[in-house]
Amino acid sequence: MVELTEAVVDDDGLAANADRGGRRSVTLLEADGWARACERLGADLDPIARRANLLVSGIDLVDSRGRLLRIGEVEFEITSETTPCGLMDVVHVGLQDALRPEWRGGASTRVTSPGTIRVGDKITWLGSR
Predict the structure, then answer these.
(1) How far apart are CA 115 and CA 82, in angstroms?
(2) How many other C-beta atoms can be found within 10 angstroms of the C-beta atom of residue 24?
(3) What's the predicted TM-score (pTM) here?
(4) pLDDT at 117 over 80
């Protein structure tokens, strides 16, 4: 995982990402949900450990399946909750369970309108499909 300040997003996801396309083209991790999971564990873990594509703040991803979201000039459709796998417990014992409530593991998306995203871009809900 590499932290970037901007990324090109095409129809299959982040241009430089190894795992591209499908219903999980881009994964989002909500900063507040990550913080709550870390608080539950009493640990200060880097969000990069979750291995999501984008760390977002200022939105609530809970039960957002089917909703449309714009980040900067890129539009996404939320396709599902990203459920945490057992690898999270390799990062920190108990992390998998700490990420289960309230979509703390993040959301999977597919790209509906490509472009470039940058740290600090505005995030806006657009509606539902």
Answers:
(1) 23
(2) 17
(3) 0.91
(4) yes
